[in-house]
UniProtKB/TrEMBL annotation:
Name of a matching Pfam family: adh_short
GO molecular function ontology, one term from the record: oxidoreductase activity
Identification of the protein by name: SDR family NAD(P)-dependent oxidoreductase
Keyword NADP: yes
Organism (species): Nonomuraea longispora
Entry's family note: Belongs to the short-chain dehydrogenases/reductases (SDR) family.
UniProt keywords, alphabetically: NADP, Oxidoreductase
Length: 235
C-alpha cells in the first residue's frame, strides 16, 4: 500500500493528481491550508485530509505528526504554489516587481517545498520506495526563457519563474543527497486553473499526467531530473 501526500490538493492540479493516484491504488492525503476546503475535497475524492499550510512551521510539523501516527509516507508531491498578479490579473514584470512580491512568492513556492520536505523526510526515509515530486514550471527553464520566439521567452514575470528555478535547484541537490529516493521536478504545462485565471490551454487531466507518472516512479526510474509529459526538458 502506497501512501501519498499532495500539498495544495483541494483544487486544480493537486486535486486531479489526488483523483488519479487514488484510482491507481494510493492512499492519498489531501493537504490543504483551509480545513473546510480540504475536507470537502477529501470527501469528494475518498481521500484523507490533513491541514497543512506550507508557509507555517507549526502547521507542517503537526501534519507530519498526523501522517506519521497513521503509518507513514511513501510519496510526497510538493504541489502547493502561487503566482502573484496585478489587480487586473496581469503578470508582474521587472518594472513592478517588489521585494514583498518576491518574498511572498518564495515563502510559498520555495521555502514551502523545503519546509514540507524537511518535515516529511524522516517518514520518507522509512519507506521502501520513497518518492518526491516537486511541481515546478516550464517557466523555470533558463534555456527556454532565453530562447527568442518561444512563449516562455515572451513571458515577462520575475518572482514566479525565479521561485520555480530555485525549486529545480533544490530538486537536484536533494536527489544527489538521497540517491535511494526518486526526486524529480515536473512541468505540467499551461493548464487552466485558478493560478492563471483559467487562461491555461490544457485541462487539469492533461496537466496532472506528468505529476501522476512521476509520483509512481520506481527504483529504476530517473531521479534528479526535470520532466514534462514528453520527457526531459532543458534546465
Ligand atoms: N496551472 C498551470 O498552468 C501551471 C503550470 C506549471 C506549474 N504549475 C504549478 O502547479 C501547482 C498547482 O497549481 P494549480 O495550477 O493547480 O493552481 P491552483 O488551482 O491555484 O492550486 C494551487 C493550490 O495551492 C494551494 N496553496 C497555495 N498556497 C498554499 C499554502 N501556503 N499552503 C498550502 N497550500 C497552498 C492552494 O490552496 P487554496 O485553495 O487554499 O488557495 C491550491 O490548493 C503550482 O505549484 C503551480 O506553480 C501550474
Amino acid at each position: 500500500m502506497t501512501t501519498t501526500l499532495i500539498t495544495g490538493a483541494n483544487k486544480g492540479l493537486g486535486f486531479e493528481t489526488a483523483r488519479r493516484l487514488i484510482e491507481a491504488g494510493h492512499t492519498v492525503y489531501v493537504g490543504s491550508r483551509n480545513a473546510g476546503r480540504g475536507r470537502l475535497a477529501a470527501e469528494r475524492l475518498g481521500a484523507r485530509h490533513v491541514l497543512l499550510d506550507v508557509t507555517d512551521d507549526d502547521s507542517v510539523t503537526r501534519a507530519a505528526r498526523t501522517v506519521e501516527a497513521d503509518g507513514g509516507l511513501d510519496v510526497l508531491v510538493n504541489n502547493a504554489g502561487i503566482e502573484e498578479r496585478t489587480p487586473d490579473g496581469g503578470v508582474i514584470g521587472p518594472a513592478d516587481v517588489s521585494t514583498g512580491i518576491m518574498r511572498t512568492t518564495f515563502e510559498t513556492n520555495v521555502l514551502g517545498v523545503v519546509r514540507v520536505t524537511r518535515a516529511f523526510l524522516p517518514l520518507l526515509r522509512r519507506s521502501a520506495a520513497p518518492v518526491i515530486v516537486n511541481v515546478s514550471s516550464g517557466l523555470a527553464s533558463l534555456t527556454r526563457v532565453t530562447t527568442p520566439g518561444t512563449p516562455t521567452y515572451a513571458y515577462p514575470g520575475v518572482a514566479y519563474p525565479a521561485s520555480k528555478a530555485a525549486v529545480n535547484m533544490i530538486t537536484v541537490q536533494y536527489a544527489k543527497a538521497f540517491p535511494g529516493m526518486r526526486i524529480n521536478a515536473v512541468e505540467p504545462g499551461y493548464t487552466a486553473t485558478d493560478l492563471n485565471l483559467h487562461a491555461g490551454t490544457q485541462t487539469v487531466e492533461e496537466g496532472a499526467e506528468i505529476i501522476v507518472r512521476m509520483a509512481q516512479a520506481g527504483p529504476d526510474d530517473p531521479t534528479g531530473g526535470y520532466f514534462d509529459v514528453s520527457g526531459m526538458i532543458p534546465w
